[in-house]
Amino acid sequence: MELQEKQDLAKVANTIRQEIVKMIGQAGSGHPGGSLSGADILTVLYFKRLRIDPTNPMDPGRDRFVLSKGHAAPLLYATLAEKGFFSKDKLATLRKLNSDLQGHPDMKALPGVEMSTGSLGQGMAVAGGIALAGKMDNARYRVYALVGDGEVQEGLVWEAAMLAAHYKLDNFTVILDHNGLQIDGRIEEVMNPEPIADKWRAFGWNVLEIDGHDLEQIDQALEAAAMHQGQPTIIVARTVKGRGVSFMENIADWHGKASSMEETEKALTELRSLL
Amino acid sequence: MQKIATRDAYGKTLVELGKKFDNLVVLDADLSKSTKTALFKEAYPNRFFNVGIAEQNLICAAAGLSLGGKVPFASTFAMFASGRGFEQIRNSVCYPRLNVKIAVTHAGITVGEDGASHQANEDVACMRAIPNMSVLVPADAVETEQIVEAAYHYDGPVYIRLGRLAVPVIYDESYKFQWGRASRLKEGRDASIIAIGLMVSKAIEAAELLAEEGIKVSVYNMSTVKPLDVQAIEEAAENGCIVTAEEHVLIGGLGSAVAEVLGERCPVPLERVGLKDTFGESGKPDELLKKYGLTAGDIAAAVIRAMDRKHPCKHRT
After folding, report:
1. Cβ contacts (< 8 Å) between B57 and chain A: which residues?
2. N or C: which terminus of chain A carries fewer CB neighbours within 10 A?
3. Yes or no, beta carbons of B96 and A116 under 8 Å apart
4. Which pLDDT value is given to residue B317?
5. CA dist B267 to B190, B235, B257, Å?
6. Residue A49 to residue A9: CA distance in whole angstroms
7. Residues A90-148: tens digit of each pLDDT
8. Looking at beta carbons, which residues of chain B come within 8 Å of A128?
9. Cα distance between residue A228 and residue A83, in whole Å
């Protein structure tokens, strides 16, 4: 990755983080921690990898991205708005009555939202179904899903993992936002899903492990996943929950808590200083 | 009278439709021999997906296939689709209003010997409560063929409730199923019976028993439980009393749906035939229907009770 491109992408990721913080602060509720942890992943996906056109969001040949960890809706909304799927003005309506920006993504309300998600495990399983349809049609599009590391506690995730391996869905890439925290605390303490990478290997997946905040590593892993044949790929991306806002980083409480006006300002100041 | 299980008609219809429509795909969760989707698998192996014993994924994979432009029919036993897969149906099919058909077999107590764990008697209640869902319960093989084809052409979520037991064929080829419309099979002025599924043929039998006593009843098949045919219920109510009959618990099913309409629009005495807030058990289908009060005789007795209540001040024992 060229230095210039890396700097451009880092800037986009920073802008997305600022929008996330602003949106949730304005809404008075929402999930900042897991939205911030996935910002670099979505940046590389939407601004480098996905073959999508915001002016033609239903193009049958487009790549599909499903936000399986639907509570990170602010991350998806900020990314889609930044990409030009809809006006950034909409972001201020998050979680408000009559808004298209529902607390969890509603595919019928917003262009660019491929699937309504929020109930964990289901988005990934549906994404597997889309990949299956793509395989049937020998379509060129790829299917991506962002899954949380607490989410893998859902049995459905493993049902879907079996299906994707069984049908050799190499057009399917799952990115695991491995930030180590869930609502009730550290994932190992709540219900230990480790060793996560070994589990996916045992389920017949191609497993790549990366730093989920390193734009270059994210890009290379996505490239490797696209080249890999005969197996679906999971990119286990180690991330920091609340990444970019010092007082939110690695604190489970910020899973589903909005910042106060003062905290929001502080967070925005911090993020701006990183540019 | 010829008897065919609605699940058999379903399997054959899938094969017929598969010939005409390339985008029709079928999913099953390791019960394809029982649900009869194995017939489709044999004919179109590339359009059949066995997801294994994984009903949550059965529903979600079907949702994904619909997003990929396919028209998926997902099948397993009624118990496991409506029970295990409930939340997937609600959140990943009905909320985004995806074009997924959930065609389930082995509904009700006539599953028989497998017993209560496999007898879905609550599924109509669960499914009709979900916004955007249509709930269809064919009465025989002829209606099954038409409902399955209509479901293919309908754009949106559909739940089709089928049975294991061979049931009388009550319609001939002149029958035309209409979405949202009940069909009247008998006409009389003393009372009306509204039934679904295999209870429709029991209702016809009950009408014949009552006719021997000089009582003439109308019989309606409310195969579209949702959207419900409100007009047909209003017409049925003109007889002054109604009996509903279903192989389902009395909480939330057809009887409840009819009661909701009657209560709000045209109150008349109502008697409901169905399972009384109980689980089933093992036994032969006919033994179970008898033990749980789902025979033609039970319907006829309910008609007498309902007619008796047409006179509100009359003392009842």
Report:
1. 125, 128, 156, 159-160, 162-163
2. C
3. yes
4. 47
5. 16, 12, 13
6. 12
7. 999 999 999 999 999 999 999 999 999 999 999 999 999 999 999 999 999 999 999 99
8. 57, 60-61, 64
9. 28
Question: Taking a contact as any Cβ pair under 8 Å apart, which residues of chain A between 100 and 139 contact chain B?
Answer: 106-108, 114-116, 118-119, 121-122, 125-134, 136-137, 139
The predicted pLDDT at position A275 comes to 86
Shortest Cα–Cα distance, A63 to chain B (Å): 11
**Residue with the two structure tokens 């007498």:** B304
Query: Is B42 an annotated catalytic residue?
Result: no
Q: How far is A85 from chain B (nearest CA, A)?
A: 19
Interface of B with A (CB under 8 A): 25, 46-47, 49, 51-52, 54, 56-57, 60-70, 87-88, 91-92, 95-97
Q: What's the mean pLDDT in A181-186? A: 96
Q: What CA–CA distance (Å, rounded) separates B273 from B283?
A: 20
Mean pLDDT of B296-300: 98
Identify the pLDDT of residue B312.
Answer: 63
Say whether pTM exceeds 0.90. yes
Please state the rounded mean pLDDT for residues B283-312: 96
CA distance B99 to B65: 9
List of chain B residues whose C-beta atoms are within 8 Å of the C-beta of residue A129: 60-68
**Strand extents, DSSP E, chain B:** 3-5, 24-28, 48-50, 71-75, 101-104, 134-136, 158-161, 166-168, 183-186, 191-195, 217-221, 224-226, 242-249, 270-275
Residues of B whose CB is below 8 A from A155: 56
Tokens, residue A191: 């219900």
State how far the Cα of B5 lies from the Cα of B12, in Å rounded to an integer: 11
Strand B270-275 and strand B242-249: the pairing is parallel
Residue B207 has pLDDT above 90, yes or no: yes
What would the mean pLDDT of B39-62 be, rounded to a whole number?
A: 98
Question: Does position B316 have pLDDT exceeding 60, yes or no?
Answer: no
Exactly one of B55, B122, B143, B271 is catalytic; which is it?
A: B55
